[in-house]
Design goal:
Porin, single chain
Length: 226
């Protein structure tokens, strides 16, 4: 994971370790509310809109994520789960004439419906769908091309300017989850995609026309339910 995002990730881990046990102590109806923590590996990427004739080879960035969560169990097989925490996003683009890397930090709040089914005495599989809202915290970029208009490195800023180094301050999108839980430990696989571009810009003429970038990617999370 990039060095710049490490303080956010470690801060989120610390916050989860402090807040989650306290939240678990607030249960008033055993079995109705579950509380826990989750963390793991984020492999974010961009889904491009607009001019895609430039034909880049888009790769995943390597980021981290961590959440505290609560789940309202409305029945033995259905619940509503809400989470809050840190998630790293971004993208790595490699082309024949250079590369462009974005690393972005977000405070994210996912909310999703959860359907589960028991398999044996201690194992339960589940799936879910919902959405998320996120706030851009900061990040960095690293460009290397043969065009001085798209070269260099530095900090990403928040806003809506037509510039590849300016990130929209808010993000929201759809979320899909599959996972399994055994003895309070869960393993989840996720896919998410935003519904509004995080970036909108017109690159130098040699790189094509106007385009936007939707945040997306996959995640592998490990969690513990208190």
């Amino acid at each position: 994971m990039k060095q710049q995002g490490l303080p956010f990730f470690l801060s989120a881990i610390f916050a989860l370790s402090v807040l989650a046990p306290a939240a678990a102590q607030s249960k008033t109806n055993q079995g109705l509310l579950d509380f826990g923590i989750k963390g793991g590996l984020a492999l974010p990427s961009f889904f491009w809109t607009g001019d895609t004739d430039w034909n880049p080879a888009t790769n995943f960035a390597i980021q981290g994520e961590a959440y505290i969560y609560s789940c309202l169990n409305l029945s033995p097989t259905f619940g509503i789960e809400m989470e809050a925490g840190y998630r790293g996003k971004g993208c790595s683009v490699d082309a024949s004439d250079g590369y462009a890397h974005w690393y972005m930090d977000y405070l994210e709040v996912p909310l999703w419906a959860k359907w589960s089914t028991p398999v044996g005495e201690h194992l339960r599989f589940y799936g879910g769908l919902g959405g998320y809202a996120a706030c851009f915290l900061g990040g960095r970029y690293d460009f290397s091309t043969d065009d001085p208009g798209l070269d260099g490195s530095g900090r990403l800023t928040s806003g809506t300017a037509d510039d590849p180094t300016v990130v929209r301050p808010f993000d929201c999108g759809a979320l899909f989850v599959v996972g399994g839980e055994s003895n309070r430990i869960c393993l989840e696989f996720r896919f998410s995609v935003s519904v509004i571009p995080s970036l909108e810009f017109t690159p130098p003429p040699s790189f094509g026309g106007e385009r936007g970038a939707l945040n997306g990617g996959i995640d592998l999370l490990v969690g513990y339910r208190f």
